[in-house]
Amino acid sequence: PDCSRLILLSFPQCAGEENWVDSRTIYVGHREPPPGAEAYIPQRYPDNRIVSSKYTFWNFIPKNLFEQFRRVANFYFLIIFLVQLIIDTPTSPVTSGLPLFFVITVTAIKQGYEDWLRHKADNAMNQCPVHFIQHGKLVRKQSRKLRVGDIVMVKEDETFPCDLIFLSSNRGDGTCHVTTASLDGESSHKTHYAVQDTKGFHTEEDIGGLHATIESGASGSLETDFMPLGSENLLLRGATLKNTEKIFGVAIYTGMETKMALNYQSKSQKRSAVEKSMNAFLIVYLCILISKALINTVLKYVWQSEPFRDEPWYNQKTESERQRNLFLRAFTDFLAFMVLFNYIIPVSMYVTVEMQKFLGSYFITWDEDMFDEETGEGPLVNTSDLNEELGQVEYIFTDKTGTLTENNMEFKECCIEGHVYVPHVICNGQVLPESSGIDMIDSSPSVNGREREELFFRALCLCHTVQVKDNDSVDGPRKSPDGGASCVYISSSPDEVALVEGVQRLGFTYLRLKDNYMELLNRENHVERYVHLALRWKRQVLCVLPQFIRARVERNAVEGLRTLCVAYKRLIQEEYEGICKLLQAAKVALQDREKKLAEAYEQIEKDLILLGATAVEDRLQEKAADTIEALQKAGIKVWVLTGDKMETAAATCYACKLFRRNTQLLELTTKRIEEQSLHDVLFELSKTVLRHSGSLTRDNFSGLSADMQDYGLIIDGAALSLIMKPREDGSSSNYRELFLEICRSCSAVLCCRMAPLQKAQIVKLIKFSKEHPITLAVGDGANDVSMILEAHVGIGVIGKEGRQAARNSDYAIPKFKHLKKMLLVHGHFYYIRISELVQYFFYKNVCFIFPQFLYQFFCGFSQQTLYDTAYLTLYNISFTSLPILLYSLMEQHIGIDVLKRDPTLYRDVAKNALLRWRVFIYWTLLGLFDALVFFFGAYFMFENTTVTSNGQIFGNWTFGTLVFTVMVFTVTLKLALDTHYWTWINHFVIWGSLLFYVVFSLLWGGVIWPFLNYQRMYYVFIQMLSSGPAWLAIVLLVTISLLPDVLKKVLCRQLWPTATERVQNGCAQPRDRDSEFTPLASLQSPGYQSTCPSAAWYSSRSQQVTLAAWKGKVSVEPPPALSGSRHHCSSSPSHSCPGSRVQLLV
């Protein structure tokens, strides 16, 4: 067959993509242009490879080294290492080069392994086989070798390898069904339609002989024949063919130009707030280091200004040394002092941090509470660099469909002229066991009412895009709702399936669509046939509802149900024919097609007669509402970003408790902007929210108090485009700032009708606002990848809806409910541990190097080291590294159950609280104080004093060893005092590290090592331990060093305790095992007061709670002796009622 007509490709654009224009000419099957066409200009398009990896084999080493040397410490130690190689320094180049090499190598191996996993996933996708037509024959090749213009054959349950124009299928009507679960999280079946002129080509030979041209982006009139195409003819990469044996399509976009790939953004190196703080602290310590080196260099030349000090009789200079340039000598000395004091910059901290992150990430993957039995999936960690960022999240941006909801609809009820019908609860063909039979509330309708009732049911049976699958297995066994013949309804809209299944229980069964006729089975078991008029148009119609139906619809909407009004209109034959002609003319229009279709539907949808309304429930994911409530109490603002319409999304937000009954909704939508200008709407909303925020301060629970007004903002994609669009004066910042100010005053924000790139725009807007909050994005589909990559932390929901989001995320979880434990427990612990690790490393290095600085004042600034080379090298590697590493892996300052019960504890660590400058200065001053105690305590204690039994006094190496011994014991015991969670491993590591230091020192100084060219430490440590005053000095100086920190902690805990410390104090007493936290309205229960600050008890829907006060504490169960006489109090049936109370029985 020869089809030499020109096909014009014209797709509607999504909001946020208005400026994207692509013009291309595609010759189907790579055939020659049709006769009379313009000169053929070949266009080059990318191949079909997908690349999600970050490195290649060739650029891994230079790119990875560049990223690693962006770290201040790595770059600094590289400079120090080069200096040690160039000039004569007090220490060996190995002391800096070896730790640096170890850090770079470990980090490179870790990041290379993670990227190798991405390469592996890409190769699996790019090498999968694809069938395509070549010279009328079916050929198989790898997906990456596909080119634009190839004709592809896709079989049932296969994924489309690229963006295709649907040419034909094995179905006679030229339709196919696809699921887009991996793209947008929707598991429902969507119907697509083949090109009208090619849907009859069913064989490889027919398709192979097709002559056609596709033009994208063309406009204006064309002299040749054409066939306009729309989104219903487009099959996107990542979607899966369902319930259709095979289809043929032509590739129009391949590889990184497919819509799925364009929604991705380039992977950038995400850096946590802790790492940024580390870099800032390192810069401060680098300044301190330079100051020390400058001071010592200046004082050295001041000291040597007198001749007898510069050239003593026993160390005369050579003639070449005397003639050396003074500035060159000074610069060399400056570099030598830099090398001597360089240990203040803890390069080993980066090694420990990398190990802590890598090993600590396994605690997430091993968490059995985050394993989903239904899917058999557990959490995944794709990158461990952001573990501590999970404890700093301030904004969460979540998708709706498939993330908050299961996209699983239930038909709840329908209302017809005041009569409410509640059938069996139907869910995807399954009758729930707890439901009852058909209930007809109120009295039966009259004869006239019976006709309208049947007309209502027929409307539900006919007005849909549902297809019937006569098979007992569609993605698993599923039976018909009536338990009879095996059949399944499938549709692009799960709402439609729920309605058709629901009305089947009420007596009307949809059978099939055949030969353009729709068939249904009525209550009398008679088959009725109706002509099928395919409109395929979704739009909202405003109507006036009768009082009862209106009240019912409002009631269902408040409960979060999806409502639909059903109306009809009678047409005579002439009107019907006129409507068909009008619609056909609008469909084939090239210019303003959507506008003409809207005008045609406007004429049809006049004078409609209302029949009734329906209510359908979109099931929330398990514990989604509890998770959001807990996150809000933790001080995290939750935003929902979805492509759904406003009404549907708002209903879901009410159901998951993002919006509450006392929440005043503010709308920033296209409809309102059309009525008023954007400027007026923004200023009006700003006045509304700021008027209340000026007089009321938000409480400690993210605006969940019933005593103040909460605001929720709803914005759509088109309105966001106007806000982000530059103004005529070239500036868009004013509108953005005003929009952000409104958002800050709202407890929750809903963004609907969002394109994937707009989701990323929203995240970026908040991310770079003046507060620079930490953002987290969570989604389950490929349309969420852009915002997952943009946020500080990206989390993909694995579930059943594809792997695109999980593959491109930093972390992956099976269900949304697991986000609660990931942030409130794991995130909290990760941040506490790593913040202590960072501050402790700086503290112990100040203790380590400041005595070396003081020692220069007593050795003529000669760059003499206070400690032996072995101590210099092993201090950070062996003596003090393992205890802090274990602490950073296992510390639990509060129990897991307490963190889950009381989300407000998350606020104690928010905004990088433990790595602020005030805390950093405290740790630095503490290190300086301890260093002064170490040095001068040892100095004054043994100045001009005999400390051995034979009357000898200590030498400089014994003095340095004494200072080093006191320091090792002090910094190790300081960590022991900070440890709250003790296990046998803690005891073994802490006391074992001290024992290792003693044993090593005895061996190092007790044996003459043949490989050493010096024996200055021989018998030094043993001589020190043989002295009684040395033992006294060690005990006394360690005690004095630890005393200020102990006093500070005791006073602060008693006078100014934090919420965490109050919980620690309260939970120090023995108490019963606490139950799992149920985050409901405990804060709204004035009748309940707990004697233990951590005991936050909550009432839940339709549950009974027993509370008893026993010996000054609260417990679920009374003592066994009293278990026979328990008192119960039931909570309010509506758990969101502000007035619910829980009585405390004594």
From TrEMBL:
Residues binding ATP: D399, K400, T401, E496, R562, T642, G643, D644, R753, K759, N783, D784
Any Pfam family hit: PhoLip_ATPase_N
InterPro entries: ATPase_P-typ_cyto_dom_N (IPR023299), ATPase_P-typ_P_site (IPR018303), ATPase_P-typ_TM_dom_sf (IPR023298), ATPase_P-typ_transduc_dom_A_sf (IPR008250), ATPase_P-type_domA (IPR059000), HAD-like_sf (IPR036412), HAD_sf (IPR023214), P-type_ATPase_IV (IPR006539)
Family statement drawn from the similarity comment of this UniProt entry: Belongs to the cation transport ATPase (P-type) (TC 3.A.3) family. Type IV subfamily.
Binding site for Mg(2+): D399, T401, D780, D784
A cellular component annotation (GO) from this entry: early endosome
Subcellular location per the Swiss-Prot or TrEMBL entry: Cell membrane; Early endosome; Endoplasmic reticulum membrane; Membrane
Spans annotated as Disordered: 1119-1140
Gene this chain is encoded by: ATP11A
Cofactors that this protein relies on: Mg(2+)
Catalysed reaction, written as an equation: a 1,2-diacyl-sn-glycero-3-phospho-L-serine(out) + ATP + H2O = a 1,2-diacyl-sn-glycero-3-phospho-L-serine(in) + ADP + phosphate + H(+); ATP + H2O + phospholipidSide 1 = ADP + phosphate + phospholipidSide 2; a 1,2-diacyl-sn-glycero-3-phosphoethanolamine(out) + ATP + H2O = a 1,2-diacyl-sn-glycero-3-phosphoethanolamine(in) + ADP + phosphate + H(+)
This protein's UniProt keywords: ATP-binding, Cell membrane, Endoplasmic reticulum, Endosome, Lipid transport, Magnesium, Membrane, Metal-binding, Nucleotide-binding, Phosphoprotein, Translocase, Transmembrane, Transmembrane helix, Transport
Ranges of residues in domain P-type ATPase N-terminal: 42-96
P-type ATPase A domain: residues covered: 127-230
GO molecular function: ATP binding; ATP hydrolysis activity; magnesium ion binding; phosphatidylethanolamine flippase activity; phosphatidylserine flippase activity; phosphatidylserine floppase activity
Membrane topology term: Multi-pass membrane protein
Segments of skewed composition (Low complexity): 1130-1140
PROSITE patterns: ATPASE_E1_E2
Active-site residue numbers: D399
Domain P-type ATPase C-terminal residues, every copy: 806-1058
Enzyme Commission number(s): 7.6.2.1
Transmembrane segments: 280-303, 334-353, 840-858, 870-890, 920-942, 954-976, 988-1012, 1018-1043
UniProt protein name: Phospholipid-transporting ATPase
Enzyme's top EC category: translocase
PANTHER family: PHOSPHOLIPID-TRANSPORTING ATPASE IH, PROBABLE PHOSPHOLIPID-TRANSPORTING ATPASE
Domain of life: Eukaryota
